[in-house]
Amino acid sequence: MRKLTLVLALAATSVPVAVVSAQALHLIPQPRFTAPSNILPLPQGIRLTCATPCDPEDAFAIADLRQTLTDRGIPTTEAANAPHVLVTRFSTPTGRQTYADSLTPAPTVAPSALPAEMAAEGYAIIPDRDGLALTAQTSTGVFYALQTVKQLILGSGTSASLQLATIRDWPAMQYRGLHDDLSRGPIDTLDFQKKLIRTIAAYKDNIYSPYFESTQAYPSNSLAAIPGASITPAEAQQLVAYAKQYHVTVVPEQEAFGHLHHMLTFDAYADAAETPHGAVLAPGSPQSIQLIDGVFKDLAALYPGPFLHVGADETFDLGMGKTRADVDARGLAPVYLDFMQKIVNDLAPLHRKILFWGDVAEEQPALLKAMPQSFKDQTIIVAWGYSPRPEGFAKYLKTYTDSGFQFWVSPSINNYRQVWPNQQEALLDIQGFTRDSQRAGATGQLNTLWDDDGESLANMNWYGILFGAAAAWQPGESSIDAFKASYGPVFHGDTSGLINQAQDELTAAMDTLHQAKVISNIDGTDGLFWIDPWSAEGQPYAAKMRPINSAVRLHAEHAIQLVQSARYGNPNLREQDALDAMDFGARRIDFLCLKFELSDDIIHNFAQAQSTLAAGDWKKAKPGLAGLFGGINGVNGFLEDYTYDYSQMRDMFQQQWLRTYRPANLTPVLERYDYTIQTWLARIDKMRFIQNKWRANQTLDPADVTALGIPAPPEPVAPSPNRVPVKP
Prior knowledge:
- It is a single chain.
- The chain folds into 3 domains: 2-169, Chitobiase, domain 2 (2-Layer Sandwich), CATH 3.30.379.10; 175-478, Alpha-Beta Barrel (TIM Barrel); 506-708, Four Helix Bundle (Hemerythrin (Met), subunit A).
- 48% of the residues lie in helices and 12% in strands.
- Helix 15 (423-440) links the parallel strand 16 (406-410) and strand 17 (444-449).
- The strands form 2 sheets. Strands 9, 10, 11, 12, 13, 14, 15, 16 and 17 form a 9-stranded parallel beta sheet that branches. Strands 1, 2, 3, 4, 5, 6, 7 and 8 form an 8-stranded mixed beta sheet that branches.
- By secondary structure, it is of the alpha/beta class.
């Protein structure tokens, strides 16, 4: 049989090989069947071949692999003795034999058809002479096979090698995607949207869903979309064409019920608003359907895929204005679902499946189940849940499984309102929600990222994005540990383990903050980053932070060191922008805790100075008042640390933003940095005024102390030396 011939050919090849264990094979997503064998060095590069005739779409997939090789400094060659990758279609005899050879045991006659589950997107890869051969029934399957081949090519340049393996694979879920918030501040550049599409496609996602409230420009609605802060029609069309090459469908979400505040602030749409300048359309207003009709006709022309997403979540204003009487009489859910039917019926001529969020409808499972079959046939309901559930999601999903609707699920990468995504929450949420949704019959998973306060940074999101893609492709419960082990080697080309360790340190830092419940009453760790530790609101948080500041900082600082060590050890690491984002995220976490430590340093220094003055004979005290005051407000003093560090954070934040986002909406975030820096500069001036008066008359004016605003110390401070470290 052919397999034996191939093994003998491998043994006889003049190219040296090295055996690798199955545990060393890192792939994202993990294929259903994998049997690694040998590694071939690639000193001459690699030969890419396509069985005749080569389908044009397969030619694009091969060109995409060639570009990846070029980026990694690995040449492609026509040399006959170079290791090769052979692309075949299952419809050819070579393709059928390739698939047969991937089976264990191999059949004596090659199957005439692929299993049904493999037909649309599945593929097979085998060692073939001195390289790999792959086959699939469709161009999508060939594309995904070549994405796996990318991960089987290890290293870069002339030291690169090709991992040989037998692989069979196909997806667990039909629709696998990323939902990208373009309405809460950051708006991706077109180039970065293309990078997102390339990247999610490389990990076998097939849906990209940009989220719009008022950031897609429409010919029928030219008011809301601000030039420079919205996606133009031409950009939308270019994105769709680009995504198609990567077997990604763009599914736009335009909010069509709630979350429309930026649109409804215009007086031209006042009649459509449930409440003045609110966020929800009034179901009883004719202008509401007129607005939806025009916008979605434009949207359908720009995005010609099979789906449109109308949002319709969190309609908090419903029943508070124009529809109050109707809601009071019939209840919220009937009014909501009636309007959803009107929306879907109005959009029926567009011949699209309509997606909508399920959070409002799920409150009335009986009503949802009783919806007309025609409505169910035209829609897909999307369940969302952004936190892990120790008990699982099965009970939560029962409303959807019983409803008769086709449904998808949406976990979250938990990046919103965070200085760094909360990976512990995100991975558990993605794992559990996707696992239980597969068991419940969901046909799709739409992993979400949100930019609620406008401060999220795109290059911090890759960890959750990749695990979401893996969990949707893989059947059952996806292993978090296997993903963590594979992330560094696959995404960054890091075989040292240092990047994986850095991710673990960042996860531990964020988990410590969340487990300590120090952020329950403010907006995530972003709120903690900004809160003034001297303010009445900030002082209780300072108390909560004291027990954990050092532990969190040590995790963050270790992450910084690990990333830098990995870079020094391997200058060819991939995705450098993401590594920069890891470094910046760790520094944000570190400074978040440092600012509370600095506050305590200042409080204790100042309290010790006051106590020393009150005790008399202060001229003989050690440390002296000059040292205590200098530690607060001298060269390299604690107050100066605030202004320097916030300024550094500001500059680094701006650099990170402009790598992926348009300049629009950056200014409000930078102004917050500027405002905070000015606050601490003002305190420097007030402290300098106190220092100068003390030098002149050796007294502290209580009014000056009050104006400075230093809080009382958390415990009594005796006039003993070295209460806190004093800066020289």
